[in-house]
Amino acid sequence: MKKHNLLVICLLLLGFSSCNKFMDRDPLAKISPDNFFKTEKDLKLYINSMYTMVPDAETIYNEDMDNVVKSSVSEFLTGKRQVPVTGGGWSWAELRKINYFLINCNKVLPYATTRKYIGAAKFFRAWFYFEMIKKFGDVPWYNTPLDVNDQALLQKARDPRKLVMDSVMADIDSAIVSLDAVKNNELITKWTALALKARICLFEGTFRKYHKEANFNLPDENKFLQAAADAAAQLMASGQYRIFTSTTTSAYRDLFATKAANTDEIILSRKYSAGLQIYHNANYYTITASYGQPGLEKSFVNSYLMKDGSRFTDKPGFDKIQFYAECQDRDPRLAQTIRTPGYTRIGNTNKLVPDFGAAVTGYQLIKYVTDETQDSYVKNDNDMPVFRYAEVLLNFAEARAELGVLTQGDIDQSIKLLRDRVGMPNLNVAAANANPDAYEAARYSNKTISGVLLEIRRERRIELVIENFRWSDICRWKEGSMLTRPFKGMYFPGVGQFDLDNDGKVDVVIYEGTKPTGPKGPAYLKLGTEIDLENGTSGGSVMINRNIAKGFNENRDYLYPVPIQERTLNKHLTQNPNWNDGL
Description:
Elements lengths: L2 H14 L9 H4 L3 H4 L3 H9 L8 H5 L6 E2 L5 H4 L14 H12 L6 H26 L14 H4 L6 H18 L11 H21 L10 H18 L12 H7 L8 E5 L11 H6 L7 E2 L1 H6 L19 H4 L5 H4 L48 E5 H15 L4 H5 L2 H7 L7 H6 L3 H6 L7 H13 L6 H8 L9 E6 L3 E3 L9 E4 L11 E4 L13 E5 L19 H6 L14
Parallel strand pairs: 7-8
Antiparallel strand pairs: 1-3, 2-4, 5-9, 6-7
Helix pairs in contact: 4-8, 7-8, 8-10, 10-11, 11-12, 11-18, 11-24, 12-18, 18-23
């Protein structure tokens, strides 16, 4: 068998193996570095196998913390997570693949050839450990491919978070100087590495700042915050990327719904292709009841500013404004994230109202939704953004604010660009600090957050919604209590007939007792069974899972538990605080 064919088979076996234990070593054992790392083609082929670490579309859009809520409640929200027997995110197969490459790739070829591939491998190792740190805190640091005979390493205790993060920083810095400074949103480049560094350092800096309990209480938060700002600033100064705009009024929506990822703004994307029969499921996810009827939560919708930059929540009786009125003159990103009055599908002119059968809150998602030809199960072929320039700008602004050195000039080169895209006025630092938003401030348990930091967090929440950031943000800010509040949807004054888009036609009928007779067009929702209003017949916001108690253990739930099987096999592995596994 030719060496390239054997390598492909071995890598496929490794990538699709159902078991992630270190003992699953046969595929790598069949690859001899002296035989397989002899040409640059070998290096490229092997590195390509690491791209399985790039999150897929469902991982990105399937967000269900407090921004997006569903008809069911996950164990993350009820506080009833259990220590798993196995799995639970404690998986090391990808790391073994990475370390094998780093140990062996230079045995035949010169560094001039291997340089950028080593940079890519170190990028992936930094990303791998970043995700592990976020889940588990302290984890064992391995920089060699483990073997069945490496009993000392297999029985290794968890290394301190400080050591692991210092190693992650060394890897990502090495990747930045080793990778090519090219612009390609299908490949890991110098710019992807800078974006990852900004993401990693903002997380770690804010986590260390806000988690001062005995279990964490790590120093050097400002070192990481400065590194986040510097990495973002370096990427910003490169001139490689800009915020995507278009001649239409739907630039924000178009960024996520077009087939090919926009090369001006998307730094790295997950590629999908009808030609290659590689699809995701975003359309079906948002227009059917099959995935829990995901919809935006009421307090999040309230957070969208008015188009003139004023606060919706400063309006008298804002919490009792019905759907049509609450959607008028808002930040245009609201109408490009959910169905609002006048909404039409891409490629169609028919006006559609929100469908309560697909969105439990009534605020029905449209981000990532393409034309109707892709509505079937797993039929989307639009690329999925993974690293976006907008995130880099937000990371820069937040890091500078957390350091206490944010200037209006910083905002002008970051958040202003996001506001400009949708025709919104700029954020004014002095005004935000002089008049903090009381509604936003009330959401946070930490009452020392400045007015401008509240605005930056608002901007982040709105710009990056449904992009798989919310859990990480809640964890690093130490705001798990946000997940315990009641989840709500649209406001209705009581039972009756409702015209959601003000076109003179009834769209929703809320009734008691026997279903009324009438036209087939409206959605008929029985009060108490098909819809639950805050104050029953007296009306109120739609209540989601009112009778399911939520809970968040501040002394436990910011970390995942280590699986029982791993602690049974390795007696030196400690469990995370307050997770009871019986061992």
